[in-house]
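User: My collaborator sent over this chain with a note saying "see what the structure looks like." That's all I know about it. Can you take a look?
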Amino acid sequence: MKNSSIYIIILVFFMVNQIFPIAFAENNKTIMGWLEKIVILPYKIELTAKLDSGADTSSIHARNIEIFEKDGAKWVSFTLEYNNKNNIVHQIQVKKLLVRKVYIKRHAAKSVERAVVSFDFYLGGKKESAEFTLANRENFKYPVLFGRQFLKKNIVIDPEKTFLISSDSGSLQNNKLGNKRDRQ
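Assistant: Without extra context I'll predict from the sequence alone. Here is the result:
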């Protein structure tokens, strides 16, 4: 009798968790798809970002990366390259304060040193800020990658969905865990 009660409790727990999987999650986390649109500021460039919990740091596609000194501080100049909606390649020359340098581990290759800069951007109608390593991502499908350092800011990835939130500054969508519409 005692064992059957335990089995029933476990069975009920799993059934409830399958019907309402987010009922046991924290209510302050935002659900995002594994791909989302962001708008890089101040340039107002809309880019597709891949949310990747396997990566530690975030990264953005950049070319012609050069570190230089200005007024006793280290800066970095680089070219942001992106495709517009008509798939035409555009380039913007950017100069930003160098936050730091990091070594990125790569599969079956030597670690590589990368410059890190900070960008403001809109994600889900909310202005955010994050540090990005500068990397030539031309061989990758998406120009921006968000790693765990950014994702730990209360973001949950739904690996079956894409573009769950808006990137623009005027439409903060209500997409928090625990909302009734998220369980549908």
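A starting point for your reply to your collaborator: The helical segments are 2-19, 148-151.
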